[in-house]
Amino acid sequence: MIDIEVVYAAVDRQVLRAVSVAEGVTVRAAAQASGIAAEFPELNLAECPLGIFGKVVADADSRAVQAGDRIEIYRPLLADPKEVRRLRAAKATEAKARNT
């Protein structure tokens, strides 16, 4: 057995769980074994992106966890970050034009 952590941050609260899993278990299986999905009914662990220490795991169904890993469960993005930056830049340019 190896010790890992599984974390999930909802809009209103965060959960960090220490979990012991068998060696060779996949990232997705470890996230499911944590029991976090039971606390968040809106969470679909079969489809949501997962990461380890801030880096997205491309194939969470085949990558095995290692001792000490912190698996992060990511929420879907509400807005595209590139679009948000573009809108913010356009708004700043517009404000600058009004002030000159």
TrEMBL record:
Domain of life, per lineage: Bacteria
Family matches, as InterPro entries: Mopterin_synth/thiamin_S_b (IPR016155), RnfH (IPR005346), RnfH_sf (IPR037021)
UniProt-listed SUPFAM superfamilies: MoaD/ThiS
Gene3D superfamilies tied to this protein: RnfH-like (3.10.20.280)
Any Pfam family matching the protein: Ub-RnfH
The family this protein is said to belong to: Belongs to the UPF0125 (RnfH) family.
Protein known as: UPF0125 protein HU739_013810
Native species: Pseudomonas hamedanensis
Lineage of origin: Bacteria, Pseudomonadati, Pseudomonadota, Gammaproteobacteria, Pseudomonadales
